Amino acid sequence: NLAPARLAADVDEARRIHRGESGRLDVWMVSSAAAEVGRRTRALIAVRPDVRVTVTEGHTADVLAAVRRGAADVGVVRDPDPDPRLRYRTVIEERFVALVPDDGAPDGPVDVRELAQRPLVLYPRAAGATAYEANLRPFRDAGVVPRIAHEVSHWTTIAHLVAAGLGVTVAPLSAAGTLPPGVRRRELRDVTARSAIVTVSADAESPLAAAFAAA
Prior knowledge:
Layout: H1 3-18, E1 23-29, H2 34-47, E2 51-57, H3 60-69, E3 74-78, E4 86-101, H4 112-115, E5 119-122, H5 129-141, E6 147-151, H6 155-163, E7 169-172, E8 183-187, E9 194-202, H7 207-214
Parallel strand pairs: 1-2, 1-3, 5-6
Antiparallel strand pairs: 3-9, 4-7, 4-8, 4-9
């Protein structure tokens, strides 16, 4: 009779899932957190090989909404809007850098006041209000207001518009890793603002979500 053996196997699998040793983990992320998500996913699977991880990309606002409605077990976002229903863990804080057209200007740090005199390329506020304001903080701290000329959805698109000479941008360091030809990365002079990559989960998070956040 195979029924008792099958039942025992099902009970064992249920216990493994409850302990976070097996099952599926749905991770939602912003594109600039891809390297961090990749590192954490590899670390998790190395110690829990029976776990299946699926990754979905979206804006910070999209990721937070997915966590709230249960579509995502854990999110990895940048500078998220506060929500008392969610659990946040800051995993990285990084500096901002400037992305400018490769127009032959000298290398070296650039002043944000100089950048504010040129058109700015950025993502829309709807992608995440707190993240949007964090990206503008270097300008606010310097007492200048940039002119946002173009709003597009992804850092890759922003970089290509900068390469085309349509403007400049200020980006978190990890969003400025792989750049298209025609773009230069320059440090910002006297800027202390930082951007945080944060893991987000429901307040009553699953063992798998907790393991991913701690990886």
